[in-house]
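Bumping my old thread because nobody answered last time. Still need a sequence for this structure:
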């Protein structure tokens, strides 16, 4: 089994994108995922599965839509992928690390042409 970090985009504590973490953990556990853990009301999940990352993204998106309601974008990453982002951060020395943020795209962005 492989450990994945599942990131849900647009989770809100109230309103149309509300995803209660206890309910999310239950839905994922009931569906056979192992060691399901969530982080506060963030929409971040850690779990173990035999599925590939690509299949897991769509599968979790469908489970959330079916059992909880919101149709959210889902990104799946490994710990090694996130560690690489942190290690390759160009803003390390001379920067307040608590003020440095990163963005992870589901797919690579299109090249932007500038004039």
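Sorry it took so long. Here it is:
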């Amino acid at each position: 089994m492989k450990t994945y970090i599942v990131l849900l985009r647009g989770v809100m504590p109230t309103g149309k994108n509300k995803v209660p973490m206890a309910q999310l953990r239950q839905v994922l556990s009931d569906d056979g995922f192992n060691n399901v853990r969530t982080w506060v009301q963030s929409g971040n999940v850690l779990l173990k599965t035999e599925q590939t990352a690509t299949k897991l993204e769509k599968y979790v998106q469908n489970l959330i839509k079916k059992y909880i309601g919101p149709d959210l974008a889902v990104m799946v990453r490994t710990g090694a992928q996130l560690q690489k982002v942190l290690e390759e951060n160009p803003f390390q020395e001379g920067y307040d690390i608590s003020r440095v943020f990163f963005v992870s795209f589901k797919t690579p962005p299109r090249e932007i042409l500038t004039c």
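The radius of gyration is 16 Å. Let me know if any region looks off to you.
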